[in-house]
Specification:
Length: 143
């Protein structure tokens, strides 16, 4: 099945895209408010930018991406790639949290932090699949 535009995506893909958009908008709001300290724990110490600024900027980006997933229906293929890239770019923060043994978001053991690392590829796949980005890429490769 060639799923290159919004009208050809399944209801399940649409529901998962909306859930991901809501999740990102909610998480981004948390960056700016009630979970700010928790997100500070994920900022790698080697970044040459103030950690609080990273949390604030990434929160704004997450809110923007979440809203894009929810409302930019005609640009979903591109949005999926951007969201997937965002998840790749923030992965070093998860690695840093694991490597430095920093507790945040209930991840208070090395095992819990290690398990969390395996969810990042799931988020990447979720973004690409629910937006039809991966299907679009494969369809274009066949042509």
């Amino acid at each position: 099945m060639n799923q290159t535009n919004a009208s050809e995506r399944t209801i399940f893909q649409t529901v998962l895209r909306i859930l991901l958009g809501a999740f990102l908008a909610f998480a981004g709001t948390g960056h700016l408010t009630w979970h700010r300290t928790e997100f500070l724990a994920q900022v790698p110490t080697w970044l040459p930018i103030e950690a609080d600024l990273v949390v604030l900027l990434s929160g704004v980006v997450e809110i923007s991406l979440g809203l894009s997933l929810l409302f930019l229906r005609n640009k979903q293929v591109q949005v999926g790639w951007v969201v997937a890239l965002f998840f790749v770019l923030i992965f070093p923060g998860n690695i840093s949290q694991y490597m430095n043994g920093i507790s945040a978001f209930g991840l208070d053991t090395d095992r819990a932090r290690l398990i969390r690392l395996f969810f990042q590829p799931v988020l990447i796949f979720w973004a690409l699949w629910s937006c039809g980005s991966w299907q679009n890429f494969r369809a274009k490769r066949k042509n």
